[in-house]
Amino acid sequence: MELIGIEDFLKLDIRLAKVLSAERVEGSEKLLKLRVSLGEEERTLMAGIAKHYSPEELVGKKVLMLANLKPRKIFGVESQGMVLALSDGENLSVIVPDRDIKEGAKAS
């Protein structure tokens, strides 16, 4: 894997987002459509985590997201960021804080 410099890392805007709503995407086994709050703004995200999470499990959960990812249309919906998760090939876990922190907080 290629090493990056601190200047590359600083380009990433990783923030805490609270999941306001979640729903399965018709026609996809993998995708969930999430509405998240970053504190002062809300966004729609498409996340390929439906095989590991039900919509009900995610509502109210705070997750890390990449906030400055270029928007992309997926299944006709504009995704405005990416939920960050860990995977070992079989299992997947969204990244959540271990303390109560306000949504919109920036990772450093």
What are the main properties of this structure?
108 residues, mainly beta, five-stranded antiparallel beta sheet, two-stranded antiparallel ribbon, 39% strand, globular
What report would you give on this structure?
This protein has helices at 6-9, 55-58; strands at 14-24, 32-37, 42-47, 62-66, 72-74, 77-79, 82-83, 85-87, 92-94. It is mainly beta. It has a five-stranded antiparallel beta sheet with strand order 3-2-1-4-7. A two-stranded antiparallel sheet has the order 5-6. Strand 1 (14-24) and strand 2 (32-37) form a beta hairpin. The mean pLDDT is 96.
What is the tally of beta strands?
9
Shape: globular
Residue-averaged pLDDT: 96
Report the helical percentage.
under 10%
Write the H/E string, N to C.
HEEEHEEEEEE
C-alpha end-to-end distance: 22 Å
Treating each run of at least 4 consecutive H or I residues as one helix, how many helices? 2
Give the class from helix and strand content and strand pairing. mainly beta
Gist of the model:
7% of the residues lie in helices and 39% in strands. It has helices at residues 6-9, 55-58; strands spanning 14-24, 32-37, 42-47, 62-66, 72-74, 77-79, 82-83, 85-87, 92-94.
List the helices and strands and how they pair.
Blueprint: H1 6-9, E1 14-24, E2 32-37, E3 42-47, H2 55-58, E4 62-66, E5 72-74, E6 77-79, E7 82-83, E8 85-87, E9 92-94
Antiparallel strand pairs: 1-2, 1-4, 2-3, 4-7, 5-6, 8-9
